[in-house]
Amino acid sequence: MSRRYDISEYQICRHSPSRTTFIRASSYGWRSLGKSEEVFGVLQRYTCWYYCGTGSNSRGLKLQSGEGAMPASFKVLHDPVRKSDTMAADFGESAIGRVAPVDSGFWWIIMLRAYTKSTGDHSLADMPDCQRGMRLILSLCLAEGFDTFPTLLCADGCSMIDRRMAIYGYPIEIQALFFMALKCAKLMLKPEAGGKAFIERIDKRLYALSYHIRSYFWLDFQQLNNIYRYKTEEYSHTAVNKFNVIPDSIPDWVFDFMPMRGGYFIGNVSPARMDFRWFLLGNCVAVLSSLATPEQSSAIMDLIEARWMDLVGEMPLKIVYPALEGHEWNIVTGCDPKNTRWSYHNGGSWPVLIWLLTAACIKTGRPQIARKALELVESRLSKDGWPEYYDGKLGRYVGKQARKFQTWSISGYLVAKMMMEDPSHLGMISLEEDKKMMKRYLSRSASWTF
């Protein structure tokens, strides 16, 4: 297979049956595929199209998304008479749940920084449209409201998991992407036109967000035991059980799932609720962005190795573990026929995620984990026609509604392969930890060793 593909998601979209592409999907392919000048052209065209005002954010109920919201996807419309293409944005009004995306703007910022890092070309990020775009996204995300947490409050279906799966609240995927986008924006924002004020706000938010996630989302054996012994109905700032989580709400499966060594960021934390499910994307982005400390990053890798058959199986990788079943599936998903147990977003296996695991493994010095996962991918993915996802507890079967020849399944594999062959590519997507922030932070997690 060729190691170089001079292709962009926009070009694929023009010739695909649906002629639609998702921002989060295109960010995977653009990062390492294609010549730098082609990537520049795609990013520049899209940025100018959207932030120059030609992208409409009208919604189905005649409401509008906040200024700075990035569309979930765009569709290429071809005019056979004029022989020209135009792009139409979708801010969620065409999505299955009619929910505006939260992750698209973050992926755009991350992608912009990846391009700048890989090429050394700052001219695109310095463009007025890109600077304005970052400020608009930050204005939307850093706006003050009723929330007292540094995390972002989100609706169900606002991310890659765009169907009802009980991720409403403060999902780890969004929080990790938010953290990474803030760090990327800080590196690219210019002080002019209000950029300096944004940088100051970013610094404050990064510290508060990292403290919150590392303290309250982190779970290892010792912390699970602590939660199991929590007292409830504690008041004032001296409370240990700050979210009044009822120990009886801890699901039975997590006690067997948690190894003595290892840990992970749980899916969600909000008042009286902890979602103990494992979400791969959020944990890997936490590693790459240095939201996870080096000790936590190593513990995440330990968990993947210890629970290989659960989280990787026969086809990488579980988007979430475990699957919702029975009455819980009925209530949480609304009897969603696409998200049945161990299928699609409900415990399905997504080959596209291989690039995230590979990047996280390289960063933590554990390339053997990625190599083992890549061998599984190479044994079947091409033969099966590059499907979107696999079904089954081990990921053994091609998904019942999986589309074949998926761009991001192909791109995810190629990016992973390129990083394994040349680990220097990791610099495009990896951010180093802030030493000043670490000095200010003291952990209570048993997985940390100082």
3D structure, described in words:
- The chain is mainly alpha-helical and 450 residues long.
- The chain has a single domain (9-440), classed as Alpha/alpha barrel (Glycosyltransferase).
- It contains 17 helices and eleven strands.
- It has helices spanning 9-15, 23-32, 36-54, 103-119, 128-141, 172-188, 195-216, 221-228, 252-257, 280-289, 294-306, 308-311, 326-333, 354-363, 367-380, 407-421, 435-440, and strands at residues 20-22, 73-79, 84-90, 218-220, 263-265, 268-270, 273-275, 278-279, 320-321, 390-391, 397-398.
- The strands form five sheets. Strands 1-2-3 form a three-stranded antiparallel sheet.
- β10 (390-391) and β11 (397-398) form a beta hairpin.
- The longest helix has 22 residues, at 195-216.
- The N and C termini lie far apart (45 Å).
- The model is unreliable at 1-18, 30-34, 58-62 and 441-450 (pLDDT under 50).
Task: Outline the secondary-structure elements.
Layout: H1 9-15, E1 20-22, H2 23-32, H3 36-54, E2 73-79, E3 84-90, H4 103-119, H5 128-141, H6 172-188, H7 195-216, E4 218-220, H8 221-228, H9 252-257, E5 263-265, E6 268-270, E7 273-275, E8 278-279, H10 280-289, H11 294-306, H12 308-311, E9 320-321, H13 326-333, H14 354-363, H15 367-380, E10 390-391, E11 397-398, H16 407-421, H17 435-440
Antiparallel strand pairs: 1-2, 2-3, 4-5, 6-7, 8-9, 10-11
Helix pairs in contact: 2-4, 2-16, 3-5, 4-6, 5-6, 6-7, 6-10, 10-14, 14-15, 14-16, 15-16
